[in-house]
Structures are given as structure tokens and as C-alpha cells.
Amino acid sequence: MGVWDRIKIIFGAKTNAVLDKAEDPRQTLDYSYEKQLELLQKVRRGVADVATSRKRLELQIQSLDGQANKLESQAKAALAGGREDLAREALMRRSGIQVQIADLQVQLADLQSQEEKLTAASQALQAKVEAFRTQKETIKATYSAAEAQTRINEAFTGISSELGNVGEAIQRAQDKTQSMQARATALDELMASGALDDPTGTSKDSITIELERMASANQVEDDLAKLKGEIAASAAPAAIEDKPAGE
Known about the structure:
By secondary structure, the chain is mainly α. The chain folds into two domains: 3-159, Orthogonal Bundle (Helix Hairpins); 204-239. The protein is 90% helix and 0% strand. It is built from four helices and no strands. It has helices spanning 3-22, 25-80, 84-193, 206-242. The longest helix has 110 residues, at 84-193. The protein is rod-shaped and about 205 Å long. It starts with a helix and ends in a 5-residue tail after the last helix.
């Protein structure tokens, strides 16, 4: 295969792909239906033309029949008047008209046959066009439904993918939260057990704090009693000196 042939094949394949992507089956069906309607109209116009020609022939035959009857009456009148020559002339003309009528009747029969065939063809074509219209609308409805379903599925696929990402983020957040909670619980347990003493000495458990509070209260009471004793001791000599002599 030559390079040019390969190029034509590739170009043709790409063109077909583009056309297939751009083609809307519903528009194609509507276009085909319009073409069938145009064909049906042409057939109907053909039937109408044949019917018109047939009617003209019928009128022409009627007119010739009238002329033939008139010539026959004239021939009778001529014979009654003793003019056989005029009667003969009238009958000769009548004979010529009858030949024309016979030819027209042959043409009329042919037109009637054509009209019947075209009428049958028009009716058959009309039935096919109506059947195609029903099928067309069914296909269009099915295609529209499939197209809508495809769009919904595509949207759902996108939403599912997005929800998957959101779900992963939520799972990561839950994992981090659980990890943080576990760490906080572990630190609380270590603090309660004293395994993590505060190097500044400011962190004490509740028992230690309560004991220190009790010790502080006892120290205050001891200091208060000591002060009272000192005051009482200093007040005793002064009282002795102030006491009157002889007492």
C-alpha cells in the first residue's frame, strides 16, 4: 500500500468519525421523512394531472357526442325534406366524428388505467410514509430517552467520582481524629500515673495538692498558736509590775 493510499484511508476514517459524531439521527430521520413527503406530493400531482387529462377527454367526447347527435338529426331532417345529398353529407360528418370519439375513448381508457395505477401507488406510498413517520417518532423518542439516560449516567459517574474523593477525605479526617483522641487519652493516663512529671513542679496530682493544702493549714494554725503564746508571755510581766504592792 502506497503512502497516498494510507493517507486517504486515514483521512476517510477521521472524516467518518467526525461525521458520525456530528450526525444527529433525529435530524436524519426528519430529513428522510421530508423527502418522502416530497415524493408523495409528486405522485399526487401526477394523479391530479392524469385525472385532469381524463376529465378533458370526457368533456371532449361529450361535445363530439353532441355534434354527432346533431348531425344525425340534421340528416333525418334533410331526408324528410327530400334532400338526400344533405343527409348523406351530414352522416359522413357524423361518421368522422364517431371515429374521433372512438380514438378518444381508447385514450380515455388508457388514462383511466394510468389514473388507477397512480392512485394505488399514491395510496401505497402514503401508507409507507405514515408507517415511516410512526417508526421515525418511535426511534426519535427512544434515542432521546437513551441520550438523556446517557447524560444522567455520565453526570452520576462524575458525582460518584467526586463523592469517592470526598469519602477518602472524610476517612482521612476520621483517622486523624481517632489518632488524636487516642494520643490525648494516652497522655491523660501518663499524667495521671505520674510518668510525665512537670519539670517546673507546677503540675501536681489531686492528692498531692490536697496534702499540701492540709499541711499549709496546719502550719498556719501552729504559727497562730505560737504568736498567741508570745503575746501572752509578753503580757504577763507587765501585769505583775502594774499590780499594787501588798497584794
